[in-house]
Amino acid sequence: MTDQPFKFSVISEPKDAKQWLGVARQAEDLGFTTLLMADVLTAPAPFPALALAAGATTTLRVGTWVLAGPLRLPRMAAWESHTLSALSGGRFDLGIGTGRPFVLEDANKLLGLQAPPAKERLAQVEKTIDELRALDGDAHTPVLIAAGGPKARALAAAKADLVTLAASPFTAREEMAERVAEVRKQAGDRAEQLEFVSPIYVIGDEAPPWVPRLLRTDMKTLIEHDSLNILRGSPQEMADELRRRRETLGFSSFTVNAVFIDKFAPVVELLT
Prior knowledge:
The strands form two sheets. The protein has an eight-stranded parallel β-barrel, surrounded by eight helices. A two-stranded parallel ribbon has the order 9-10. The longest helix is centred in the middle third of the chain and has 19 residues. With 272 residues, the protein is α/β, with parallel strands linked by helices.
């Protein structure tokens, strides 16, 4: 379905400067493309943390996974994104979405922000991208859209560079392939430029404690449903499986949590 080169990203959360910059340098040394971090109000803020990581590395990209649109005015989010992109030498990717439910709940509790309806949140995402494009001028900050419903997928087809399809961990491969094909068709002349990014939450047979809470299921059920959120086997078997996912589903980029960085490194070496 695609012959785009493989790209791999590490998702991590800063605990302190030594740990955070250590993850950044390790990811770069092991051949990962990008260091990502979430945008949640109970963790460090993404823009200053990512700026530090970019400054401590030379080729590693940094990005948000993903910025919650409702937490910032579009112009403010675009301003910070453009600044980080420019000062990192173009090594920043803006990942953005309408906000996960728990993030919106925290925004209400901690900031007193009332999340607007889904339609308005999606409009905020689009406005942020438009503001970023205006600030970028001749430059181009890559934008990833986390797209769930049909309207979000249509926006991703129109304006994203990278797309991650928000879906149930039990979404069948056939359905996922159909969604990828739908977005590519809507993208028209831009279809071959789009990169599809797939999150992998578990490498191997044991899930960290936070995975069942996040996915609201257990490892046994994920295995039974052939979930795309897990990857098992030897490094060679995992590499072969990712080649199949690229060929049959169109995914060329994958994200893994930093707890698996050493375990996944041999797979990166086989595929890059």
